[in-house]
Amino acid sequence: MSVSESTASHPVTLWRKTCIAACRLGGEILNSYRGRVVAREKQPRDLVTEADFASQKAIEEYLGQRFPTHKILGEESNLPDDDPARKSDESVRWIIDPLDGTTNFVHGLPNYCVTVAVERAGVIWAGAVYDPVMDECFHAGRGEGVWLDNQPLRGSGCERLENAMLAAGFSPHVAPGSTEVSRFESVLFRSQAMRRLGSAALNLAYVAAGRLDGYFAEGVKTWDVAAGVLMIELAGGRVSAIDGSPFDLARPRIAAASTASLHAELVEALAVR
């Protein structure tokens, strides 16, 4: 299915509003767990809490009641590799991260969110990112623009890396002297400022909102970035794989920027070995 296909055949407004409602539902769950968080490790340095599971359960039930024939892919689903929900096809698929920024949440750092997107045949049609601490909901629909609550958004318009403030993400197993570290250093020394905020979905929403000029990461998953990639595209930005090749939602090694010229400089800075 082509991105240029008319949105008339897709209920984008309904899907966007459903993403918003689902994210807010998950956010209510997260708020109810604040101050009583118990975490465990899924893998070394990769935390999960009961709040993650409770948020996802509530969102899955909400979506399942409204769209019983649609597929659902969530971070905490633990689906086998061959499960149909892991594959993009002509079926409508909802992509959920019930708590993006779990480590921040565990430590009481108020930078985490819930994010939901809807995808079909490799095209993201709508998505939302909800920050329950700030009560901010970023949302987008193909053909409908990108918004923060009721305010339309546009990227910062920053053209040069030397003037840019960017954020970066690292995999849980980043090692000294690794390519990830080398890439971070390369961008750090060429940009105005760097941040590591701990939530990929919020970072991407911030690029769409003009709060950040760009973002890059290797250790992210489909559910971390699905909504944010659409937001940046609709806000006039550019998204690719970290090497500048076309972005692949199934293998999201991401470089995103508010403008094409800044994106080109960012990709050049990331081209280290």
Report what the structure shows:
It contains seven helices and 14 strands. By secondary structure, it is α+β, with helices and mostly antiparallel strands. It has a seven-stranded mixed β-sheet with strand order 3-4-5-6-7-8-9, sandwiched between helices. The protein has a five-stranded mixed β-sheet with strand order 11-10-12-14-13, sandwiched between helices. The N and C termini lie far apart (36 Å). It has helices at residues 12-33, 50-66, 102-107, 179-190, 200-209, 222-234, 260-270; strands at residues 39-43, 46-49, 71-74, 92-100, 113-120, 123-131, 136-141, 145-148, 151-152, 165-169, 193-195, 214-217, 238-241, 254-257. The protein folds into two domains: 7-152, Fructose-1,6-Bisphosphatase, subunit A, domain 1 (Fructose-1,6-Bisphosphatase, Chain A, domain 1), CATH 3.30.540.10; 161-270, D-Maltodextrin-Binding Protein, domain 2.
Top-tier CATH class of the largest domain: Alpha Beta
**Order of helical and strand elements:** HEEHEEHEEEEEEHEHEHEEH
> Mind telling me the CATH superfamily name of the largest domain?
Fructose-1,6-Bisphosphatase, subunit A, domain 1
CATH topology of the largest domain: Fructose-1,6-Bisphosphatase, Chain A, domain 1
Ranges with pLDDT <50 over ≥5 residues? none
Question: Which descriptor suits the 3D outline?
Answer: globular
Report, as a whole number of angstroms, the end-to-end distance: 36 Å
Count of alpha and pi helical runs: 7
Fraction in beta strands: 25-35%
Number of strands: 14
Major sheet, described briefly? 7 strands, mixed
Question: Radius of gyration, Cα only, in angstroms?
Answer: 17 Å
CATH architecture assignment of the largest domain = 2-Layer Sandwich
Order the strands across the largest sheet as they lie in space.
3-4-5-6-7-8-9
> How many individual domains?
2
What is the arithmetic mean of pLDDT?
Answer: 90
Structural class: alpha+beta
The helical percent reads 25-40%
